[in-house]
Model the fold of this input.
Amino acid sequence: MIDETGNNQQAPRDQVWRKELKKRITARERTGIARISMPEVEASERVKSNIEVNRGITPEMAIREAQRCLDCADPECIKGCPVQVDIPTFIKHIEAGEFLKAAEAIKKDNVFPSICGRVCPQEVQCEARCMYTTKLKKESVAIGYLERFAADYENQSGHIYTPEIPENNHIKVAVIGSGPAGLAAAGDLVKYGYQVTVFEALHEFGGVLKYGIPEFRLPNDIIDREIENLEKMGVLFMKNIIAGKTVTISDLKQEGYRAFFIGSGAGLPNFMNIPGENLNGVLSSNEYLTRVNLMGAAKPDHDTPVFHGKRVAVIGGGNTAMDSVRTARRLGAEKAMIIYRRSFNEMPARKEEIRHAQEEGIEFLNLHAPVEYFANGNGHVNRMRLQRMELTEPDASGRRKPVPIPGSEFDIEVDMVIVSVGVSPNPLIPQSLPALHVSKWGTILVDEERMQSNMEGLFAGGDIVRGGATVILAMGDGRKAAKGIHDFLSGKKEM
Done:
C-alpha cells in the first residue's frame, strides 16, 4: 500500500534476522561462491517451437545464489533499479527459504516481477551496480534470475500476493495503453484509491509485451497472469478503443475522467529510405512480430498471413532485431542473418540474446549495411546489395562512427528482409491534441520528475516520451506519473 507521501509502507528491516543470516556464512565464504548459470533448452530443440529458452532455476540454486549477496549497508543495486525494488531484502528472504515473502517484497515496488525477471537488462542496471561488479571485479549476484525465481515460485504455489487496496475514492483516471508504462501507472494509481480504467487499442492487453516480444522469451500466459492480478486489485480494462481516433481526451473528460496517463508507445516503424524498400517481402520488425506474436500467424489454426522466408535478412542490432531473426529461424528460415553496420562491441542487444541467436545458427554480418533491394518478376525481393563498413576513431563522446568502404559493394540472395532500425512514437494522440507540446521527433514533452505534460491533468511516459526504451524504464515512468497524478488530484502542487 502507498501512503500519502507516495512511498511504499514497508516494515523496517528485521536486523536480528539479517544478522543471523550473515553469521551462517562469512563474507569470505559468500564471495567464494560461483554465480549460477541459467538452465536452457538446447538450441536444436528450441528452434522447432516457441518453447521458452530459459527454463528457470531450482530452489536449491536460488538459495545458493542468494547466499552470495553481501547485504551491503548502502545497496547500490537498488539505485540501479528504475522502480527501486528493495533487492537485498527479497534476496535475503530467498536465502532463508522464504520464497513467498521474497515475491511479496518485490511486488511492493514492481507489480510485474515475472516479466522483469525475464526481459529486463539487469546486467546494465541493478547488476551493474552490484559490489561484485564495481569493487570485487567478479560476476554480480544474479538478481534477475532470483527475481524470476521468486515470481514463478509464487505463481506456481497459487498463493498470489495482492497489495492492500484502499476504499475506492470514485475519482476516475484514464490510462491510455496497456504496455508496461500504462500497467505500472495503473497498478500504483489503484493503490492510491483511484478508479482506474486502462484503454487499449488492440484486441489483447499487454502492448509491446504481447506484440513485440516472442513467447520464447516471454510466454503470453505470464503477461495474462500479471494483468489478471491488476484486475483483482480493481483496475478496469477496455480493449479495441483507439484513443485519439474512436475516443478523444475530451470525450473521456465528459465521462468524468479527471486525469490521464498516456502510455501509447512507439509503434511507428522507421525505415532507411533506400531503393527497393517498398518491395513485397520487405517489412518492418513491428509488422512481422505483431503478425506472429499477437495475431498468431505462425499457428496452423490462425489465418493471419505472413511470408515464411527461407533466406531472411534482418537489418539492425537491437533486441527487436534478435527477436525477429530468431522468430524467422523458428518459422523455417534455412539462412537467417543479422545485418548490422557496426561491430559486435557496439551492438545494443543484450549479450544473452546475441549468444542465443548464435547458438541457433543465426549468421552475423557485422560492419555491413544495405544500400539497395532488388525484385524478381513478381515484384518480390530476391536480392540485396550490401556495402562493407569500417569504424572511425572515437569522437568526443567516445562513439565510433560507421563509414562506407568505397567499392566494397556485393550482392546476396534473400527472399525476405525485416527492417529493425528503430521506432517513432504513436502519433494519434499528439495529432488529436494540437495544444500538446511535442519534440521534433514526435515524443510528448514532460516534466521528468512527475511525467506531466503542458496540458492540465495529462501525464505521459514510456516510449511515447522516450521514443523507444526498455520495459523497466517504461515502468519507472509509469510509477513516477502515478505519483504526479496523485499530487495533482489531491491539490498538492500547482499545475
Observations:
- The chain has three domains: 15-157, 172-267+424-489, 271-421.
- Residues 471-489 form the longest helix (19 residues).
- The CA atoms of residues 1 and 139 lie 35 Å apart.
